Amino acid sequence: MISDYPEPKIKVSCEKCGRRAQYDRDAMIKAGGDRRLLDLLDAIQERLKCETLERDPDIYNKCRLKYENIRPATPNAYEQARDG
Ligand SMILES: [Zn+2]
Q1: What is the whole-number distance in angstroms between the Cα of residue 23 and the centre of ligand 1?
Q2: Which superkingdom (predicted)?
């Protein structure tokens, strides 16, 4: 949930196109209610997505925002190895 976000500022970024955005966590909850973080990310993605990448026929080259302060729920093998 948005209220679980670890910092007062919600930060998103996309490594494909370099877009970044920052939102006030409490303001987001006030405006749209507490939602699942994935739902919020979808909503932000709709607003910020890069039209150039959307038109790219390469399905792997798509705009994809991520939360900057949150680790993936299931760390991949690489991260597990790196972090020991
Ligand atoms: Zn992007």
Answers
A1: 17
A2: Bacteria
